[in-house]
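Question:
Now give any protein.
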Amino acid sequence: MVIKWRTLIFVLLFFLICIKNSFSDVDDREYIMEETEFINTVQSSTKYTKSVLESAATISLVQPLELRFFYYPDLKTLLNFSPGLYVIDNGTYWSLGNRGIQIPGSINSRSLFLFDGYQINNYFSGYPLNIPSNYVHALEIVHGYSNVYFGSNSLLATINIIPSFRYYKDDYYKDTVFKTYSYFNFYDNKVNNNNGFMINKKIGNYYFTLSGDFVNYKGREIFFPEKKIINDFTLPNFGFVIDDRLFYSDRSYSSNFALYLYNEAEKFGYIDYQSRYHFPYYGYFYLINSPYSFGNDRNRFIFYERKFNLSPNSKIITKLSYYSYGIHKEAIYEPNFSNIILRYWGMAVDLLKNNIFSVENNFYYKFKKGELLMGLEWKRSSFSFNTYESLYSDLNPFDRNIVIEFVNGKRYFNLFSLYFHLDYYLKDDLILALGARYDDYSNMYKNFSQITSTGYIFQIKNVYAKPSVIPNIGIIKKIKDDKAIKLIYSQNIRFPFFNEVIENGTWSYYLAPNEDVSVFPERHRTLELIYYSEYKKRNVNSYFTFSVFSTKITNLINEYSALADTTGDASYDESVLVFKSYGNLESTGAFLDYVYQFSYRKFIRFSASYSNVRVTKGIPGIFEYLPNSPKLLLLAKYGQNITNNLSVAFELKYTSDVLVDDYRRLINSDGWAWLVSQGVFPEPEKKIKSYWLANLTLRYYIDQNKYFTLYVNNLFNTKYDYPLSIDLSRPMTRYPGYKRSIFLGLNWSF
C-alpha cells in the first residue's frame, strides 16, 4: 500500500475535524497534564538514587513529558529515538548500538536492560525485549562503559526502564482505576493491532497494578534479490528450486503480562512476555517463507525487594529474583539428505532454556563526607540446550526423524559477585568517586564433552576466563550548584556469551588442526571528560551534557568461518560458524544532549553523537573494519500543546552511512567461495547510505480520562536498510527498513 502525500494530509485533516466537531462541547480545560515532573536523578549508575550532577557517568534521561508528547509503538522505536542510541532490526530480533558500536548478530549481549533496577535481559542469552512502551514512565540511559555495577554485558549502554506502575499514586483516590488502550496500525495492505489494559488499586498500604499487552503484526512482503539469484542458478544446474516464494512476510505475535505490588519498604513484581516470529533474515538454502519455520521465545521474571532501615543514614536492601528464558526454533532448509519428490525436507531445531535464581544484598551508608554502597550477589544458574537436525515432512509435521544430534546437555553453575561504590567529598565542591566489581564467572566455562545419541561429539574447550576485578574512578568538580566537570576512567569485561560457547562446542572436535578458536574475555577501557549543567526555575527545566571519550577494546569476540571435517575423511573442506577472539578496537568521539521543558506545554531535545571506531588488530583481508558503525547520529524533538486539549510532536533523526558486514570473513565457506568464483554473486555493496527518519504524533484529550492518538511512523517514507550478520543471512547483507505507517489509538481510563 503506497500512501501518497494527499492521502496522508487527508487523514490528518479528517482526524482533526472529527475530534473538533465531536467534542466541541467539552470545556476548554487543561486535560493534557498538570505540571509534569522533570527527572534529574539516576539509580542505574551506582545502584542507589543520586543526582545526575554528582554521578560519575555520561547520562541521558528520557523524560515523562517526552513520552506524553511522543507515541512509540514498541520499545525498539523508543530506543532508536533516544539520545546516542540506534537500533538495527532483522525482522526477528532487534539489537541496540551506542557510541558507534553494534556487532551484527550479537543480539544485545553487550547492552544491559533493567526494569526498575532489575536485570531483565539475561547475560547468557542477551535477546531483545518485548516490554510494552505503555509500561515505560521514563528511561535512564548510562552511556558507554562507565557502569560496572551490574555485570558483564553493561558495555555499550545500561538502560533502566522506570515503570509507569509506580507513578499512578494520584489515581488511587478512587477505589480502582482501570486503564485500557487500543491501537490499529495500517501498513502494507494489512491492519495490525495492539491492545492492552492496566488496573491500579490501593490495597491496604500497598499499591497494586495488573496489566497486559497483546500485539498482532501480520507482516509485510519483502523481496530479496539474492534469493532470486540462488533460484535462477540452482534450477538449471541442479534441477530444483530452493524457494519459489521469493516474497517474505515478517509476521509476529507477542503478549505481555505484569503484576506489581509495592510500598516504600518493599515491592514484588512478576513479568511474563513471549513472542512468536519467523525468520526473514535466514539466507542461503533456508526456506524463509515456510509456515513451519518459526521461533518462540518466552521470558518470565519474578522479583522481591525489601528495605531494612538500620538508622536514618543506613539501610540494607535485600533482593530475590528468578529469571527463566526459553526458546524453541525450527527452521526448514535444503540439506543434502532432502527429498523433494517424497516431500521431505531438512529441519534445524534449537531448544534452549536458562533459569537463574539470584540473591543480592546491598548495604548503604550515608556519612558526613559522602556515601558508600557495598553489595554481594550470588546466582544459581541452570542451562539446558538441545540442537539437532531431522527430516521433516509437511504430510506429518509433528514427526521427527533425527538425523544428527549435535548436543543434548545441561549445566549447573554458581556465580559470585562483589562490588562497592564510594562517593567521598574531598571538598564541598570536589567529589572522588571510586568503585569496583569482582566477578567469578570462570566456572561456567569448564570443559565439557558429550557423545550424543547419533554419535556426534560435542566439546567445550579453549575458553579462557578467570575471576576478574573491574575498577571505576572519577573526579567530579562542581561549579556552583548546577554545573560540574567530570573526569572518569573505567574498565569493564564481557565474558564469552554462553551461546557462543555452545556454537564452538558444536564444531570444536571437527575443526582443522590449524584452526585456533580460543575465546578470551573482552576488556573495555574508557577515559571520559564530561561537562554537565542543569537549570530549574519555576516552570522551566533543562539540562545540558557534553562528553568526549576514548575507548579501547581488546579480544573482541566475533563470528568466524573456520574449516572443519564432519565426515571423517580428513578433507577439512567444510565451513562452519564459530566464535573467536581476533580483534582489537579503538573508538574516540563526542556526545551532546540538551533538553528543555517548559511546564507541561513544551518539550525540546537535541542530541548529537560522533564516534570514530577503528580496528587496530584484525585479520588482513577478513576483518579490517567494524560494520554497522555510524560515525554521526543526530536527533531533534519538538513537542507542544497547540491548545489545552491538543498536542503535536515531531521528531527527526539522522544516521550516517555504515559499512555492511565483511563478506570476506566467509571466504573459507566452500559453497560461498564456489558461487562467488562462478560469478553467481557479485561483490555486495559495502555501504548502507545515510538517511533521515521522521515521526509525527498528534494527541487530542477529550477529558482527563480519554485521549486519541494519531501517529505517523517514517513520515517522509524514507527508504533505508539495516545491516545483517552475513554469517547468518548469507548472501543477504541488508534488511529493508519499514515504510510509512499510520497508527490510530484510543486511551481510556475509568
Observations:
- Helices lie at 5-22, 64-69, 75-80, 225-238, 498-507, 670-677, 726-729.
- Residues 134 and 352 are 29 Å apart (CA to CA).
